[in-house]
What we know:
Blueprint: E1 5-6, E2 9-10, H1 26-30, H2 32-35, H3 50-79, H4 83-107, H5 112-115, H6 131-139, H7 155-166, H8 170-180, H9 187-190, H10 205-213, H11 219-250, H12 262-268, H13 275-283
Antiparallel strand pairs: 1-2
Helix pairs in contact: 3-4, 3-6, 3-8, 4-11, 6-7, 10-13, 11-12
Amino acid sequence: MSDGVERNTRAIEGSVVTDFTDRMSYGGYLQLDTLLSAQHPLSDPEHHDELLFIIQHQTTELWLKLVLHELGAARRFLREDQLAPALKSIARVKHIQKTLTEQWSVLATLTPAEYVQFRGVLGHASGFQSAQYRAVEFTLGNKNAAMLRVFEADAAAYELVRAALEAPSLYDEFLRLLARTGYPIPQAVLERDVTKAWEYSPELVPVFAAIYDDPQTHWAAYETCEELVDLEDDFQLWRFRHLKTVERIIGLKKGTGGSSGVPFLRRALELTFFPELYAVRTELREPARASDPTPSPTDG
């Protein structure tokens, strides 16, 4: 028996605060009354698994709120040439992404037979209509002004997505920082229309090749490039896990929001954020070794 534990019961220490008549409590600080009363299943009679479906998507939205918070900070730090805190925010986003990806395994416990019992109550509600998800995509550079139409009936959501559409992406801010620190970023890239989706720019590949050829000299830029690659990898894993979870639960049915469902989600895997950071890998060559013979002009 350890100190303070008797008959498998732990004594409450005398210094522990138990009276919250006029003190801030845990529930009060987190506004748990509001948070925990926000789940309202619509199936009648209420289906056991609808609560899982609601909580899965509500928690995703909470994490997306934090992702937007951190990406916004990262962009601001990059604008201010503060690379270290920008990388800290990006690192936090990467951990959130892993949590979001793992979370699909919880929803995957929902079987097709269970979901079909309450799917009808969703009407046309769909994750496609997540303003925060769309703002994250836009902040990372996957912009599409046509998406604004989805949010016209919700002024706050529309403003969130519109602001993300019109602001420079995280990648834009990184490239501007590189330009300010002496890297030869093409002027056309720096002056591009930031409301458009980022498209592959072959002129950037030699810039990144120089960074990757000598990472020690260009460590700050090199490290940031790899952090951005991590972001894209994690995002694509999230997209893939989403696709497979939907396929597992509804097969090839159309989505509640009107999309083709799985085929529509599969096409999202073709979208990219930082294509030059992948293209540069093809361009890198192994350094010559001292023992290698010098190639002659006739060598193939």
